[in-house]
Design brief:
5 helices; mainly alpha
Length: about 170
């Protein structure tokens, strides 16, 4: 398990930090992209360090571990950062909406202010943490399929389809 821990920590720290940095974290709105990339990074590091071929299950585990690490970072750092920067972010979006449709700006301002509570920040962080685990697991699976080029020696060749003893052609 220790050989999975280092890649998971690195991938998790990367995805966790990118998920809490204001404005950089908006990339997560695109199918939790930082989480997927963190899982892919963890899988890549694990494949590089593994002396034996890595299977999809190992990729899913290392990706999920990276998601857990990232989720912890989001809960610990993301809540205070969200509370500190919420005025800046909401001001940015309200000014953006004012430029497009001024009649909608006041409604959006009220909705964003209603979501700027401590409870709202905690709920958002917990939901994001769960999503990070799910999507980084997917990233771990993708990473193994991309980076693992070695063939596993534990899969026996198929029997009974080509001539030879016991095959279909030996009737």
């Amino acid at each position: 398990m220790n050989n999975k821990l280092k890649p998971a920590l690195i991938g998790g720290v990367v995805l966790g930090l990118l998920s809490v940095i204001p404005f950089v974290n908006f990339v997560n709105f695109c199918c939790c992209l930082w989480a997927i990339l963190g899982g892919i990074l963890a899988a890549h590091l694990y494949v590089k360090s593994s002396p034996t071929p890595v299977n999809a299950g190992d990729g899913a585990i290392v990706g999920a571990l990276a998601g857990v690490v990232g989720g912890v970072i989001v809960v610990i750092l993301g809540i205070p950062i969200s509370l500190i920067t919420s005025g800046l972010v909401s001001g940015f979006f309200v000014s953006l909406i004012e430029g497009m449709d001024p009649s909608q700006a006041e409604m959006m301002r009220r909705q964003m202010e209603a979501g700027q509570t401590v409870v709202g920040a905690i709920v958002n962080a917990l939901i994001l943490a769960v999503l990070l685990v799910v999507f980084s697991t997917v990233g771990g699976l993708i990473g193994v399929s991309i980076f693992e080029k070695r063939k596993g020696g534990d899969v026996p060749p198929p029997q009974g389809f080509g001539g030879g003893a016991g095959g279909l052609g030996s009737v």
